[in-house]
Write a structure and sequence with these properties.
Number of helices: 15
Number of domains: 2
Helix content: 40-55%
CATH topology of the largest domain: Rossmann fold
CATH architecture of the largest domain: 3-Layer(aba) Sandwich
Distance between the termini: 29 Å
Radius of gyration: 21 Å
CATH class of the largest domain: Alpha Beta
CATH superfamily of the largest domain: Glycogen Phosphorylase B
Shape: globular
Length: about 375
Amino acid sequence: MRIALFTETFLPKVDGIVTRLRHTVEHLQRRGDQVLVVCPEGGLTEYKGAKIYGVSGFPLPLYPELKLALPRPSIGVTLEKFQPDLVHVVNPAVLGLAGIYYAKAMQVPLVASYHTHLPQYLQHYGLGMLEPVMWELIKASHNQAQLNLCTSTAMVEELRVKGIQRLDLWQRGVDTETFRPDLASVEMRSHLSQGHPESPLLLYVGRLSAEKEIERIKPVLAAIPHARLALVGDGPHRSALEKHFTGTPTHFVGYLTGTDLGSAFASADAFIFPSRTETLGLVLLEAMAAGCPVVAARSGGIPDIVTDGVNGYLFDPVDEEGAIAATQRLFQQQAERETLRQNARAEAERWSWSAATRQLQNYYRGVVFSQSMPSAA
């Protein structure tokens, strides 16, 4: 099958969406499909055998790491040469609208997927009054598709309530080779803790952006005696966070990738994730694969991954003391913490990228087959 994948973000950007997409592209190519990725220009022309068509753009004012790439006629020329059997638009916002347009113009089946909870993000950027308008735009674009995929059951239900049709679940996946418990090391722990490997070590990995609510980790850090915090990642909110955490034992590590990132997860005592806007929270699954106990908000797609008291701890997202109590419990119960580690790894081992891609291929085939069937008179 020939698949044209439209996405508003791709490599060299690093985030959960890109992680899912690069594994998906790799496994689709490996299984014999041909993929064309249409994305903002990032210097790449190929990835794992897939062609990349980069569209020039400009940095988004509120989020300079993201490029806004506007549709242009050359996309249509590229698609005519590629002759896709199916178009898949990921979080259609700007560039993705071109994917919707050309799928209709070329009479090619269209699949859309929802990964970023943009309406909730607006609250964190002072634009909450635009949320109803945002939902109408999302509904208008997604309802053009023959199938809309979400990455958690919570998002399937929320989008259904908002009037989005033809919904289904795209199962999660994680790289259990890159993220595994045996990558724990004293050297990494010393690096993350700035030379205090004996101290309790809290870890956050992800974008440093307002919607991640990283400020909420500060009282947790203060409540654990001698604890230290490592923030892995970068983003537009970094300077504000550096001011917020001034005077605390917090290390802004920057980006880590590959086995270094796997080692960071495996070397920490607890992974703290306060975000209440996650459609899935892929980074939680990576932490669990590395055997790092998770403390996260019971919100969005997170309960699909974390079972409270079994493979991590969940706290009430509106209870300011909840994260503190859950983290204190984690450090007070040594035997329970080890059980959590083992259960977390066992849960992660259930979800391979290969299986997630097989499921996606079945969705693709179903959509292509349904469109090829003659309509009833």
